Amino acid sequence: MTDVADTLPAEPATLDQTDAVERTLVLVKPDGVRRGLSGEVLRRIEAKGYTLAAVELKQATPELLAAHYAEHEGKPFYAPLVDFMLSGPTLAVVAVGQGVIPGFRSLAGATNPTEAAPGTIRGDLGRDWGLKVQQNLVHGSDSPESAAREIGLWFPNL
Ligand code: IDP
Ligand code: MG
What we know:
The protein contains 8 helices and 4 strands; from the N terminus they run H-E-H-H-E-H-H-E-H-H-E-H. By secondary structure, it is of the alpha+beta class. The protein has one domain (21-154): Nucleoside diphosphate kinase-like domain (Alpha-Beta Plaits), CATH 3.30.70.141. The protein has a 4-stranded antiparallel sheet with strand order 2-3-1-4. The longest helix has 11 residues, at 38-48. It is globular.
């Protein structure tokens, strides 16, 4: 016979149970910094209610970008993407809050700025400048694993 205790959840839900706070890496790419949109991106993150845990203007290096974009190595857009990311400073940001990983991806909009919905960062502020989707203003981590890895790369002391 099954003991009733075996059928109960180990930790029953309580009324004050909350989602875990998560962290994501946001980058304002060199096109966004050059166009003076760093503040606008930070404004949208804060207006949504997320918290800024770190903000630093950094010049990326080939080594950092090779690690950051390892999943794209070998793709046709990889070398031009790395060159673009080396073309000027990047604003690196750690944003914090429940659901911030998908939440920032939603604020950023679709990868292709021509297709990104109005209301999103890429949809409102980005466009094709002759390079299709490369210059799309921002990066946001796409999973908890990517966020942990990318925060470690851009903010080794956090
Ligand atoms: P994401 O930034 O929306 O996560 P990914 O597919 O991870 O998009 O691509 C990383 C970055 O590589 C994009 O944000 C964009 O800058 C660039 N990229 C992606 N696809 C292309 C392409 O087809 N041509 C040029 N650049 C691209
Ligand atoms: Mg990506």
